[in-house]
Amino acid sequence: MTREDGGAAPAVRTVEGDLPGPELGVCDAHDHLFLRSPRLPGEELADTEAAEQQLRGFAEHGGRSLVQWTPYGLGRQSGALVELARRTGTRLVAATGLHQAQHYTEEPPSDPAKLFVQELTRGIRGGVCGEQPRAGLIKVAGDFHGLGPYAQRTMAAAAEAHHATGAPIAVHLEQGTGAADVLAFLCEQQEVPPSSVLLGHLGRCPDVRMQREAARSGAWLVFDGPSRTHHATDWRLFDSLADLLEQGYGDQLLLGGDTVTATARAETGVPFVTRVLRSRVTRELGPETARRLFVDNPARAFAVHWKS
User: For residue 5, what pLDDT is reported?
Assistant: First the structure.
């Protein structure tokens, strides 16, 4: 994609190719169709037919695109994502990156930055029929109220890959904590623009002052749930959204479902985002706000000037 002046236009890198941000339509900014982790035995998301049903239920209520934050080594099934995108007409974005060490049973890649760049620019190995869909974002994770050595290594690799490609960096905040540490490390030490950082799970620690501080940085604030473990993701969600909207940060807010287990899929699943959450945002905060949070903001958050 190029602009009329010959420069590269911002684009969302989906598993089917690059496209303009507005083509995402109504977007689930953080979810999972496929995921497996030794920390979640028996709760794997691995069934392609079940994933297709999730997408079709999502689309029945207006859903058009979904960003899967499942990173390297956790069963992201990039080839299946391509087939699902084709069969359902849903725009799907895949992730590279690394989660916390506890989610792996094998040693991490020796050069994670090189891996991330390869998956963002050349493609993710293992696609069907020889296809290697490219990742469209980098997923990493912080620790509870801080950043340990492993988190710092993976985030430094993510920053290196961002500088090489322009890819956005999506961050798992453990229990919703550590946003200030993440921003200090990525934006101040590693010189990643805050507008390229997505802070996930902020609703799990419903500290309005902390959320305002994160918003002042210019980063994206991702509210993703529901979750039985963190009940505050539901009953404090609209208080947080209303406060941040009132403070003028409405252009930095994103919403998603973060369906990580088979149990969560059975109880709510991806369709919850459009069937319940989007409907409630429309009803309580107004249709213009709903469009901003589900359409306009994702179009800007995930569309970047790719360098390669």
Answer: 46
